[in-house]
Structures are given as C-alpha cells and as structure tokens.
Amino acid sequence: MGRHKLKKFAEVEEMKNVFSKPEHLKGKWREEVFKNEGDVVVEMGCAHGDYARALGEKFSDKNFIGIDRKGDRLWSASKKSSGEDNVVFCWCEGEHLEEYFADGEINEVWITFPDPHSKPCKANRRLISPRFLKVYKKVVKKDGVVHLKTDNKELFDYAVEVLEESNVDQLEIIRDVHGQDEIPELLQIKTYYEKKFIAEGKPIFYLKFSI
Ligand SMILES: C[S@@+](CC[C@H](N)C(=O)[O-])C[C@H]1O[C@@H](n2cnc3c(N)ncnc32)[C@H](O)[C@@H]1O
User: Do 29 and 63 contact (CB within 8 A), yes or no?
Assistant: First the structure.
C-alpha cells in the first residue's frame, strides 16, 4: 500500500466526524454523536460523501451517516465537510452494520450507485442482495424505508426480483428518474456517480421499499 494512503488512514482515525468500526456507538448514535432525537439516515457506499452532505443540508432536522469500506474516500469526505453537525461518516464493511447499530436504530437507508458485481458468483456482495436485506431488516426500524438508485438495469432488475421473492413491499419504482416531466424534489439531489452517468446519457433507476 502507498505511503500516501497509509497517511490518510492514520489521519482518518483522528477525524472528529469519521468513526472507524464504532462498536461503542451501537444504540447510542443519537445520544452521543448527534445529541438529538432526530431520524437516523444511512447512506451505504457514500465514497466522498457528497450525497450524504447534500441530504444533510436539505434536511437539517435529520441525522446522516455515510458508510464506506474505503478509508481514503472517507478522508476526503471529511475534508470536504464544513462543520455540519448532522452529517458524519462510518468506516466499516456494510455487511457488519449489526455490530455498530442496535435493532431498529436506523430510520432510512440510501443505497446509491452500488457496485453491480455482475458475476453471479459475486451476487452476495451486492448491497441489495438477500444477505444485505437481512441486515437492513434488523437495524432499520419496522416500516423504515430503503431507497436504491442505480444506472445498472441488470442490478435494478435483480433488486426487483429479490424484493418480490422476499415478500418486501415495493413503494415506488421509476425507470428513468431524470426523463420525467416532473422530478420529485427528493430525487433532484444527485450523487457524484449519478452526475457522471447522466452526462453519459444513461437513465437512472430508482426503487423505494419498506422493510
Ligand atoms: C460506485 S461507488 C458509489 C459512490 C457514491 N454512492 C456515488 O453514487 O457517487 C460504490 C462505493 O461503495 C463502497 N462499498 C462497496 N461495497 C461496500 C461494502 N460492503 N461496505 C461499505 N462500502 C462499500 C465502495 O467502497 C465505493 O466507495
């Protein structure tokens, strides 16, 4: 590993708004981190944190946690932050959320442009696979909402199939978010990857379900 990356890893451990494998915060995010009783919203695979920050700006009454497995990306997410109290980052593997969040502690999840892991043998790495649904079911409060945004039609179709097979209520499906005459306000906020894909002329797929 490069020296540059190692330096960022050391720095990220000291950053006030990045928590690395925070087992001590399980069940205590509102009390110890946000100091309020507002909703807790998690973004899976937040990378440089642009989307979590944009959501935090728009919904100042909610608390946002961007999750990513890559410390150097969270280093950059933290550097880009400008002292917002309601947006923090968590450096961990998404499949281990149960170690860092109590049952029902999360109100809402955003899965934004997840890696498609196209090979069938890698399907259980998809952030929308049954393996991850099981984790969300535990840490998201009953009837909490999960949103998925992707440019990848195969991944989207896979998600719809997984939800049907798991008897999960699908609340909304949009197959070309930005091609609509009227784009719902919430979906007007774009992630870093979303902007790239729109520039390439790709349609953006959106799915919302309750868990
Ligand atoms: C394609 S990027 C999308 C970044 C951002 N959401 C966007 O839309 O611009 C996917 C991100 O998910 C992260 N990721 C993938 N699998 C993960 C996992 N199991 N746990 C945590 N982060 C993960 C990757 O490190 C990467 O930063």
Answer: yes
